[in-house]
Design brief:
13 helices; 30 strands; YbaK protein; Rossmann fold; BirA Bifunctional Protein, domain 2; homodimer; six-stranded mixed β-sheet; 3 domains; alpha+beta; globular; nine-stranded mixed β-sheet
Amino acid sequence: MANAPVQRMSQLMAKTLRDDPADAEVLSHKLLVRAGYVRRTAAGVWTWLPLGKKVLANVERIVREEMDAIGGQEVLLPALLPREPYEATGRWDEYGAELFRLKDRKGGDYLLGPTHEEIFTLLVNDQASSYKDLPVILYQIQTKFRDEARPRAGILRGREFLMKDSYSFDLTDEGLAESYALHRQAYQRVFERLGLDYRICAATAGAMGGSKSEEFLAPAAAGEDTFADCPNCDFAANTEAITYELTPADGSGVPAAEEIPTPDTPTIETLAASLGVPASATLKNLLVKVDGEIVAIGVPGDREVDLGKVEAHFAPATVELVTAEDFEGRPDLVRGYVGPQGLEKVRYVADPRVAPGTSWITGANKEGLHVKNVVAGRDFEVDAYVDVVVVQEGDPCPRCGTGLKLDRAIEIGHIFQLGRKYADALKLDVLGQNGKPVRVTMGSYGIGVSRAVAALAEQTADEQGLCWPAEVAPADVHVVAAGKAVQTELALDISGRLAAAGVRVLVDDRAGVSPGVKFTDAELMGVPQILVAGRRSAEGVVELKDRRTGEREELTVDEALARLTA
Amino acid sequence: MANAPVQRMSQLMAKTLRDDPADAEVLSHKLLVRAGYVRRTAAGVWTWLPLGKKVLANVERIVREEMDAIGGQEVLLPALLPREPYEATGRWDEYGAELFRLKDRKGGDYLLGPTHEEIFTLLVNDQASSYKDLPVILYQIQTKFRDEARPRAGILRGREFLMKDSYSFDLTDEGLAESYALHRQAYQRVFERLGLDYRICAATAGAMGGSKSEEFLAPAAAGEDTFADCPNCDFAANTEAITYELTPADGSGVPAAEEIPTPDTPTIETLAASLGVPASATLKNLLVKVDGEIVAIGVPGDREVDLGKVEAHFAPATVELVTAEDFEGRPDLVRGYVGPQGLEKVRYVADPRVAPGTSWITGANKEGLHVKNVVAGRDFEVDAYVDVVVVQEGDPCPRCGTGLKLDRAIEIGHIFQLGRKYADALKLDVLGQNGKPVRVTMGSYGIGVSRAVAALAEQTADEQGLCWPAEVAPADVHVVAAGKAVQTELALDISGRLAAAGVRVLVDDRAGVSPGVKFTDAELMGVPQILVAGRRSAEGVVELKDRRTGEREELTVDEALARLTA
C-alpha cells in the first residue's frame, strides 16, 4: 500500500458542534452537521466539508467499481439540458414544479437534469447504428437537480444531490431482463459493501414510466417511504406498489337492495354505530376531479384513500378534491350520501376489496338515506379496479395472506425496466440482423450516492454519534493526543508510521482542547478505530478502542501498529 | 499493480468519424469529436464519452494529488447558489449576462455558480473563529456554469465545464503571498505532469477583483488569449495585462501650439500624408460614454484602442462608443477634430505614450483645422494614464526594451491574490492572537480541468490525430487485432496478460472492420503504444508502434509484454 495522508485536526476544516442544528429533524442531519461533515448552503442545498467529501468519494468509488464490474461504461453528461428532448417525451410538463427551468442569454429554454433518460437515448441514437453495437450499459456519477417542495431531512432529500444513474439499451425483452438482473446484482454488491441494511421491494414506476421496477430500501426511522415486509414469505414492497388480485364473492344470495333511513349519521363511524355494523361493512365514496371531471372512488368504510395512488393511476392528469361549488347544478350528487348505484354520469373507480359479488351499505344519493344489500356487479358497475387504499400493518400479504409488517425506509436505489417509452418518443432504432430497423428497449437505474451517506449515518449511528463501516469511513484510525507534549509527540509519530503503511489517519493534535472534548469529538466523528496517546504515553503504551463495540485495550505502540496494519 | 480492465472496442461507446463535424473550427474540437471522446449536447454543452471521461478523470486525479500535496482540503460546494451573497459583493449584477440566473418554485433567486468566492468566504466564516484555524486552503473539482456569448471551440470554451477552484485564507499579506506561491508551484507540477507546454504570464484581475494575478497560458493556435513573450528576458504577460511606465519627455524646446488648416483629411492616414509626418506624430482622440458621461481617450495616431482595456479600467461602469446624437448640444465637441487642449468639460484618459512633454499634432476643436506643437502637460492635462492600446508584435518589453513576440494561447490556469475584497463585503474576521478581530485576506485559484484536456489535444495532436501523453491517455496500449481468428485470439490473449500486469488496454476486436480502418482509428484515438496482432500472429510475432514517433518494431509476444510491463 502506498503512503496515505495524515489529516491533522489542528488544520482540518471540520468544526464540531455540541448542539443539534435548530432546523434538524432527523438523526443523520443532526449528526452530519454536528460532526463537521456537511453544512447547509441554502434550502436543500449542501456543502460537503473535507470529512464528508471523503465519505462521499468512498461511496462513489464502490459504486464505480461495481458498475465497471457489470461492464458499465462511464460517461459524463451535462446538467444543463435543452428543452426539446424533454418536450418530445412529455416530461418538460409532467415534471411540474420539481423541474428547475431556466433561460439562457438568448432566451432559449433549458432545464437542470433531474434524470437523463432523454439525453442518453439521443446519445445512443448517435452512437449505435447496428444490432452489433448493443447491448450497452452506460452510467455516470453526476450532480442532479430537483426542486423539491419540502427539502428536508438534510442530505436525505436535497434539491442538488449526487446520483449514479445508468441506462441499458437492448434489442429484446430478454436482453432488457438480463441488463436489469445485472444491475440488481451490482446494487446488491454495492449496498453490501457499503454495510447498509436494505430490502429489495416491488415499486411503482411513477413519472419514469415503464413496467417492472424495484426499489432498494434501507429501513430507517427517518425514511420517507413505507414498505411492507411479509414475516412468512419473501414478499416485500413499497406500500405504494402493493396490489391485490380481484377475488369475486358469491353475492347471489344477497336480498334486493333496500333504502334505510339514517338520520344524524354525519360520519362513517356514526353510521356504522347506529346500524350496529362494523365500518368495514359500509362503502365510502370519495369524489375527486380528474382534469376537471368528477370521478368517484369507492373503498370500504374503514379504509383511507391514498391520494398518491389515485394521482399515480390518473397521471399525467391532475387530481383535485371536490369542493362545495362542484355540487352546484349536480342534483345527481348528494353530498354525504353518494352511492355508486345509479351514478350514471360519474366514472367509478374502486379498490379490489369492492370485488364483484361483495355487498355493502352505502349512500342512497338522497338526503338522510342509505341503502343496504348493494352488491357490486349487480347494483352498480365498477369502471376500473385500482389499489387505492392506504396499506395498514396487518393487511394480508398478497402472496401468502400472512399479516404484513410495515416499516419506514430510505430509498437508496431504484431499478426500472422502461421498455420502449423513450425509444418510441425519440425514435431510437438500430439496424437488425435482417437489415430491418429494431426499436431499442431500455432500462434506467439509479443510486442516490449522497443519500446513501445519509442512510448509512442513520443506520449505523449510536448514542455517541456517527459510526462508519470501515470501507466508507473518512479514515481508518482516529489518533487522539490527550494534550501533553509527550502525548502529542507519540500521537504524531504513530500517525506517521501508520500512514507509511497505507493506513488513513485522522490525528487530533489540537492544542488547548481538553482530552474530554477530544474523546467526545472522536466518538461523534465515527472513525472505526480510536487510538489514544494518553496517560501511559511515556511508557510507550496506548489505548485502542473499537468505536462500535466500545471495547478498549491497552497495548504497546508496536502491538497497536501491528494490529492496525494487519 | 492491480488487474486493470480491458476495454473491448466491439463494445465501447466510441464511434469514430471520418469527417470533421461541420461546426468545428479548432483542432481539438474536430479531433475529440472524430475520435469519439466527446459529443455536443447543446451549444457549449458537452457529453464526455467513455474515452473522454477517462482522460478527464486522469487530469482530475493529477490535479487532486498536487492540491493535496500543498495541504489543500477537498470539499464540494453546490452549483445552485442563493443570490444574497453575490448581491453583497456586487457580482450578481457585475457578472451580467454571463451568469445563469433562475428561480425556484417559491420565486427565490438562484444562480449557477460561475466561481465560488462568496460561498467559500461564508463557509470559512462559519468554520473558522480564531487565528489558530488559519491559514487554510480549500479546493473543489466541480462543474461550473457560464453563459458565454459565443460558446465556441468545442470544450475549450463551454457553458458548462469542469474546474478545480481553490481558495486560500490567511491572516497576513505575507501568508497570502505564501499560499499564492504554493499554488503557483502546484500548478507548475500539474501542468508538467500533464505534459503541457505553458507560460506563466502577468494577468489582469478582471471581474474577480484583487491585486496580483498570473495566468498559466498554453500556446496554441486555437487560443483566445494573446500573450507577449520577451525573446531577451523572462518577461511574459497576457497582452491585456502589459503596462508601461510613464517616461516624461523634455518638451521645453517645442514652439507654441499653432493651428494649421487641414482640408480633406478625413482620416489619420490622409492627415499624416498631407502633412508629411508619420501617423505616430498625431494624437488620436476617441470619445466613449462611461455610464453616460463622455470621456476622451488619447493614443498615438498609429495605434488602436483596446476597448476591453478601457472597460476593465472603468469597471463596473459600462462603456459605450459615442453616436452622432451625443454631439448634439455639445459645441465643445467637434466631430473629427477633437483635441485635448481646451476640452474642459471632458475627462481625458491617455496611453502612457502620451507622456508629459511629448508633442503632438491633433484636432483643433474647430471644423477643418488641426493644431501642431501641442505638448502634454503644457497645452493639456491628462486626468489618468491607462495602458489602452492594442499591444503589437515588436512593442518594447516593459522590462528590457527588446521587441516582444506575440502568440495565441489557451488559459489553463489563473491565480489571484484577492486580498480583502470578499472578506470586506462579507465581513470575514477571526479573533487574532491579541483577542481583536483580524480581517482575513484571500486568494483564489483555478484550473480548467475540461479545458486542459482540449489544450492537451491542441498541443499534442499531429496529422494522424490525437496523441496523448502517457499519464492522461485513456489507455496505455491500443491492441489491434488485424481481423483473422488467430489474430483476434492473440490480441485478446495479450490484452488479458497486459491487464493482469496492471496495464490499461484498449483492444480493437471489432469483427467486420478492415485492418486499414482499425489502424486509422488507432492513430486517431492517440493511445501512446499501438500493438498490432497482424500477419505474423501465427508465429507469435507482433508489431509495436510508438504513436508519437511512428517507430515500429517486430517483437515476439514475450518481448512485447516485457517492454510494455517494464
